[in-house]
Amino acid sequence: MWTSYPHILHMSILSSFWDQFLESLSKGDKNVPVLLSFLKQLKVVELTEEKIVLGCLNQGLKFYFDKRGPELEDLISSYAGKGLRVELIIIASKKKVKEAPLLSFQPSLGDLFYKTGLHAKYGFENFAVSSTNQVAYAAAQAVANGLGHTYNPLFFYGGVGVGKTHLAQAIGRHALEQDQDKKIFFCPSDQFTNELIESIREKSTPSFRRKYRRLNLLIIDDAQFIAGKEKVQEEFFHTFNSLVSVGGQVILTSDKHPTEIKNLEDRLRSRFSGGLAVDIQPPDFELRSAIVLIKAKEKNIEIDIEAAKTIADRVADSRSLEGALLSLYTRVLGGSERITLDLVEDFFSKKNGEKIKRLAPQDIIKAVCSFYNVRPSHLRGETRASSVVLPRQITMLLLRRELKLKLEEVAFLLKRKDHTTVIHAIEKINRLTMKDPLLKKDIDRIVNSLSLST
């Protein structure tokens, strides 16, 4: 249906194009009622052979579509019959400023999770409970249902992979689901440190303090790493006091009890110990079995109960459980796609007794696809949906980093046009992992699954 337009179309033609596009969406078979309601609030400002410029009446609307750029480009390009780049700008409303619908946009929970540093995958519903963590689980639920009124601070401590971060995030997620106006922030301690240093360098300390001292809930992950840093400890001490004095909740995670953290100032040690400190022990056999079953359900992997118990019996480290599960799943892809007891026993037998095989590109592709529940064909396809773009970019990073493939080889394997796409993907994932430690942990789990499968 696309015809060759002049460089910039007349306003009436722009309006006609947009109206027809919206009508095609309303009559099409794609289920986009929410998206359509927001699209109707946009205005076409410019349309050329290469791009379409859309005007938003407020920043909220622009934020919504910034997060959905690839999806919007796909819809418009499909209707136009050719690829169009989408640009979004803020335009002034014809109404008075005070009448502009600044509050007409409500961000989704996913948007809020991203903004607050939370991950939707960490919830109470997928946290396995046994005797090793039931006290921590009960305390977490009590705090989630009454921020600032039960245990303040709530301090989780224990070894790697026992569920400290999961529980802390679950509290934040529950509180946000109950009240989206709550000011919540999940912050690894190194991020707090880096932001403080940056604020001092930029002479923007007041802004830094406003950000942290007006929260309803502050979660500091790996709090032990602020020990020994004099300025960071001083700033956190005042942040802690400011929050608690106005009813804000503080949650901390650490590998040690407050009394055992070396080089921690006494006044902070006292504050950390002033609420409830809960020790989370490594998962027992029953809990590890439950974790395997929960992870399998999350990823739509069919597994026999005896197979899950055998994995739990052979793998003591909780973080390695998911890696073992994904390694096993890559072996049944294309077959029955069900993990059986025989398969598990054969897997551990070969792992313990056979020579390690060489890692192949397909092993990495399968491992990423299993982790994110997407198909290899999706990674090689043209879709720009965020659920596929992130796994695709992680695959590019791992192919380059783990196998030392040339950029052109990576592009060829994933059917990308040229090596510049691979460079962009690797740089983007490296930037994201610097800001998002949970994403880094996900990538580490994928890498661990590859070593287990060899």
Arrangement of strands in the largest sheet:
5-6-7-4-8
SS elements, strand count: 10
- Per CATH, the class of the largest domain reads Alpha Beta
Globally, the shape reads globular
- Supply the CATH architecture of the largest domain: 3-Layer(aba) Sandwich
End-to-end C-alpha gap: 52 Å
Number of helices: 21
Give the tally of structural domains: 3
Helical residues, percent: 55-70%
The largest sheet, given as strand count, sense and whether it forms a barrel, is: 5 strands, parallel
Query: What is CATH's topology name of the largest domain?
Result: Rossmann fold
Structural class: alpha/beta
Let me know the CATH homologous superfamily of the largest domain: P-loop containing nucleotide triphosphate hydrolases
Short description:
The chain is α/β, with parallel strands linked by helices. It has helices spanning 11-27, 33-39, 59-66, 69-80, 109-116, 134-144, 164-178, 189-201, 205-213, 230-245, 266-272, 285-298, 305-314, 318-332, 341-353, 361-372, 376-380, 386-403, 407-413, 419-435, 437-453, and strands spanning 43-47, 51-56, 85-90, 154-157, 184-188, 217-221, 249-254, 276-279, 302-303, 338-339.
How does this model look, in words?
The protein has 454 residues and is of the alpha/beta class. The protein has 3 domains: 11-99, DnaA, N-terminal domain (GMP Synthetase, Chain A, domain 3, 2-Layer Sandwich); 112-279, Rossmann fold, CATH 3.40.50.300; 304-453, DnaA protein, C-terminal DNA-binding domain (Chromosomal Replication Initiator Protein Dnaa, Chain: A, Orthogonal Bundle). The protein is 55% helix and 10% strand. The protein contains 21 helices and 10 strands. It has helices at residues 11-27, 33-39, 59-66, 69-80, 109-116, 134-144, 164-178, 189-201, 205-213, 230-245, 266-272, 285-298, 305-314, 318-332, 341-353, 361-372, 376-380, 386-403, 407-413, 419-435, 437-453; strands at residues 43-47, 51-56, 85-90, 154-157, 184-188, 217-221, 249-254, 276-279, 302-303, 338-339. Strands 5-6-7-4-8 form a 5-stranded parallel sheet, sandwiched between helices. Strand 1 and strand 2 form a beta hairpin. The longest helix has 18 residues, at 386-403. It is globular, with a radius of gyration of 25 Å. Mean pLDDT is 84; it is low at 1-9 and 94-105.
